[in-house]
Amino acid sequence: MSEQDIKTGPLEYRTENGRLSILGFWIFLAAEIALFSTLFATYAVLYGRTADAPLPGELFEPTGTLIMTFLLLTSSFTCGIAIHEMRRGSKKGLITWLIITLVLGLGFLGFEIYEFIHYAHEGATMQSSAYWSAFFVLAGTHGLHVTLGIGWAILLLIQVMKRGLTPVTSRKVFIVGLYWHFLDVVWIFIFTGVYLIGMVM
After folding, report:
1. Contact 7/14 with Cβ under 8 angstroms?
2. For residues 72 and 103, is the Cβ–Cβ distance under 8 A?
3. pLDDT tens digit string along 149-188?
């Protein structure tokens, strides 16, 4: 990247620290991929080992799962708009779309918590069987990451409101955007590999 490109490029890339931080976060995401790959592999090995617990096909509901998927994938779209507004230099646009992203993320978490409680009432808990243990660890780890992402984004919103759009705040917002898109990609694999396949079990 030339000196001219650096000066006229996105704000988050205009300092060496910003570029190195973004590179470091890509490396962190590689470690996260390894974590979720391990959880998916564990789930695949334990698939079908439900013992006397309910089968996933008896509990998984298409409506709730589709709503969660819609909320999270839509939040990825609004997060992208927030980054676009940030690069336009619109502080108000960034804040507005990031808040919308957070509301959608909170809606996803609300449905997931309700789902977990429903499963527990129906006799499917981490103690019920190897399958349900693997399910709750996988889905719960993703849900925990979403929770952390929401908390992280809220703190960044406060920083942007106080300090405005700077190379530092822009870099942080861009990184949390990468994190959020990563969680959406993981959810697509959970939706297809866990819920859709589980519904026919």
Report:
1. yes
2. no
3. 999 999 999 999 999 999 889 999 999 999 999 999 999 9
CB 18 within 8 A of CB 10: no
Encoded amino acid at 25, one letter: F
Length of the chain: 201
- pLDDT tens, position by position, 130-150: 999 999 999 999 999 999 999
Q: Any residues with CB less than 8 A from the CB of 34 and at least 6 apart, and which? A: none
Close Cβ partners of 41 (under 8 Å, ≥ 6 residues apart): none
Residue with tokens 């030339």: 2
Distance CA 105, CA 170 (A): 21
pTM equals 0.89
